[in-house]
Specification:
Blueprint (H helix, E strand, L loop, with lengths): L1 H4 L7 H5 L4 H17 L10 E6 L11 H7 L3 E5 L6 E7 L13 H18 L3 E7 L3 E8 L2 H13 L8 H11 L5 E6 L5 H13 L3 E8 L1 H5 L6 E4 L6 E4 L1 H25 L3 E6 L5 H14 L1
Parallel strand pairs: 3-4, 3-6, 6-7, 7-10
Antiparallel strand pairs: 1-2, 4-5, 8-9
Helix pairs in contact: 3-5, 5-6, 7-8
Length: 300
Amino acid sequence: MKFQQDYSKLLDPEFVAKIDGLDLKARLVVEGFMIGLHRSPYHGFSVEFSEHRQYMPGDEISRIDWKAFAKTDKYYIKQYEEETNLKAYIILDSSRSMSYSSGSISKYHYGSILAAALSYLMINQNDSVGLVQYSTKLDKVIPPRASRNNLMEILKSLSSTQPGNATNSAECLNLVSEKINRRGLVIIISDFFDDLQKVLTAIKRFRSKKNEIIIFQVLDKQELDFNFGRDSIFKDLETEEELLTQPYHIQKSYRELFDSFLKKLSVECGNNQIEYNLITTDQSYDKALLSFLKKRQKLY
């Protein structure tokens, strides 16, 4: 198949962004990832093959065993050993700062596709997955369930939401923590542009309840490099405050402060057994998906 021959393209954010429909984006990202996974040293993360069952309407054509069809002239689906069910919560920052983009893909757009792909991957593994979207409040809460209907509800919410309002990460994360009673996996996708100490305190509450945590800090590359070449007006997306400055005069100081911010988040996560991943919107999605599979394997 054409997609299989060029599977790496399905993990490229620029290519994925051009595809219509979040459900299709999620499916193609996951399928591209799984094809690449089986061609890599990480193939051991896939679940083990168990048996065949006859093809039923609604099954994915990609799961048909064509060798079995050649032998029997009947369609069969490959079934896999079910692993212990995981309950996962994907928490996506939907505040206005996530709308920033120096190119064609905003942080929110990237984060929503990542959340969709992770949801698709988990549902296919018979895991329960839920979604929380927040800004100054909890904008949407979808409880974890292991069903296609839940996946469709998650995709619908991700597709219909646009970043808005300011950020109140700490309070929102505390509210989510109060709702979680059963140990599970918490995935937080955000730029973490907020009071970092308060945010870290809130994240640690998840760990105190024995949850495993993966953090994806999604940033635009321009936020890391600060490579603006001429006088610019910078506008705070949440407060709308504006500042006129010469970027090259403050680039060094900016990078030092920003590096300190990133280091603090990374070190604190490491000290609390929280998996931290820095992702930029130009990076392929396989890094994030592989991080999830590694964490999932450690849980059982």
